[in-house]
Design a protein that fits this description.
The protein is 38% helix and 16% strand. It is of the alpha/beta class. It is elongated and about 85 Å long. The two termini are 34 Å apart. 52% of the residues are buried.
Amino acid sequence: MHKIDFCSRRALHSVDLTRAIEQAAQASLPRHTLMQRAGLAVARLAMAVAPHSHRIWIACGPGNNGGDGLEAAMHLQSWGKAPVVTWLGSPDTAPPDAAESFQRAAEAGVTIAGTPPKDYDLCIDALLGIGASNRAPVGLMADWINLMNATPAPLLAVDIPTGLQADTGHAAQPIVKAYHTLSLLTLKPGLFTAQGRDAAGTVWMDDLGIQALLADGINPAFSPSAWLAGPAAATTRLHASHKGSFGDVVVVGGAPGMTGAALLAASAALHAGAGRVFVGLLDGGCMTVDASQPELMFRAFETLDFRHMTVVCGCGGGDAIRRLLASILSTSAFIVIDADAINSIAADTQLQALLIARSKRFAGTVLTPHPLEAGRLLGITTGKIQQDRLGAADQLVKRFGCTVVLKGSGTVIASPGQTPVVNPTGNAQLATAGTGDVLAGMMGAALASGKPTFEAACEAVFRHGQVADQWTGNRALTASTLSQSL
């Protein structure tokens, strides 16, 4: 068992893959072994996170997740604790493993009650796990979820918080809001995107001794459905480098009243390591120098040659960016499309055709929508995007043939021919104006340095969130401070 600390890349497996892995493991083990191992793992983590707890409420559902809870109760009782199990199942209808665990718990003298105890020091959610449907919990299950969420006692979820969709991170209320979640056999994508981060708390992982099944290359059928991003490998700049070694970035945006967005993107590209940063403002030439950042070079849009530059376009572009997009999409070597450039493309089928054509000539392209912009591109609501963020990113990749960075809690990075990546870094400090512009500029610098498009996107997103995670003190993290902290 280990805590997921985001220090290395980790495999994520969908519900269907997890069930296939479980079946393969069960075929090579004595009957009931996995559930017994799961129960022991739950009990051990319970004692690790709440060592002084004595009276423990274990809410068990009717399926195998409930069986894991019943097994945990036996161990806790044998260690001198006083577990109380409430079970929504019955011996006649429960799956065979769960029914056997109920029988074992009853024979061991575990208290199995019809109602939750009034006082307890720890609560364990073993209601649904990956068995959750798209429907919201109702009846006694919903009542128990609300009771668990209202208690001051620590709350440990088994496999995945009840109500959370393991594949998507979407949840229909009510949903368990755990202090800790122990993911069993595999890590599930939904723990790290959409509502998953808020619901799961600290995530732990126990593969129940089946790691050989998941080793890279052993069984391609069990290849991850996504990856949880890890930090990029450290790079060292060669001594014999020059500014041309790290590429040119040009930021095109900053319509009247929105100059700051373009300057934030340009500043980020500069601090993220671009060799030279040009700024093509759409403000009518009102600004020719930034005294606070004299390294930025201001140029009229018409004088810029995009063929050998990485273009970051759309930041503060307003409606003015639309008339320039055809030229940018047709000529630029690499491009990061953000903000108003995305909105312009969503509203113009001819621009969409030019975007698709870039993939056919292998031009590096990154789309960076937030959920509302992604919804505009796909013609669906923001709610639909958030219900399946991995699926939405995949739709955008298939439609436009480029790398997609779907921003939000658990940003999803997807690209043609690549297994998608969920980014674990970042927090609510980034929920402020301009941080998306900073990310676009960082991505431009990574592309200009010569990194492959997908790798550049993953690296920029991870680093962007990492700065927020490392921010200390009570001050808000503004976009300009974020840029300068790179």
